[in-house]
Automatic annotation (TrEMBL):
Record's protein name: Aminoglycoside phosphotransferase family protein
InterPro entries: AGP_Transferase, Aminoglycoside_PTrfase, Kinase-like_dom_sf
The Aminoglycoside phosphotransferase domain, residue ranges: 55-270
Amino acid sequence: MWLRRIVGGMISGSGGEPVGGGTEFTAEGVAAVLRKACETAGLDADGAELLRLGSNAVYRLASLPIIVRIARDPSVLPEMERAVGVARWLQMVDFPATRVPAGIAQPVVVRGLVVTFWESVQEREEYATVGELADLLRRLHWLEEPTSLGLPYFNPMAKLSASLDGLNAVSEEDRSFLEERAAKLAKEYDRLDFVLPFGMIHGDASIGNILRHRDGHAVLIDLDGFALAPREWDLIQTALFYDRYGWHTQAGYAEFVHRYGFDLMNWPGYETLADLRELMMVAWLGHQVGVSERSAAEFARRVRSLRTGEGREEWSPF
């Protein structure tokens, strides 16, 4: 269920419009970027396998257990510089997370696109459990990050506002509805009284971002969302996926709560935080409407649920 679905050689939501320095984000366009980036890093790109093509082009090299990630959005350079720094620091403190290869200066910018290199966790994509996610989050939240990482303060309302501003493919009626909902949630969010300590978070902590390493242990991946925020943000997706959509079992969620040591659903601000995280998910999907019929159908289903308060059990994970 959690595997990212590739449709017709592209992950749903991908398109071939020019990005960066005029490079088309197609299999052919990013292949040229891959070759140049590997040449710069001293790696062999021959036989590399394209795993997915969406907001990122993701390759697995044949010559070494290395994953190459090419970002569609050229503006992510600061985020990826920070992600590489986070990965190196997490390795230094022996925290189980995706690693960057030693001796490679990165990110690399090729034709305006940002390229990063990561050690392959294993040959196939296998997700770990929500219990292991809880263990890693509890351990992560105990760490005190060095100021040298330069982690930003996470502002969910600014992130949501930017996402809604770019919804050009949805109807004006739907966009107005989502904007009105966001304005209401902004007021509710300002009144929240967070109870967990403020500090470093993963930023997108869900079952989709914890993989099984080839040696058996679980590792966190996708480190570009690390930020400073209330720790409740790292718990909301697991609670939301169980409570509203049934994507986790009751036993699975109970295990998550037991191993982390806090049940977010018992916190008075849960519903507001869940509504906000949910709206961010819907807005993200709205960006795929113009290029994927499947995404457009799912977006319509989700907006209808927000309007009526019903049908969330019919949502499909993306």
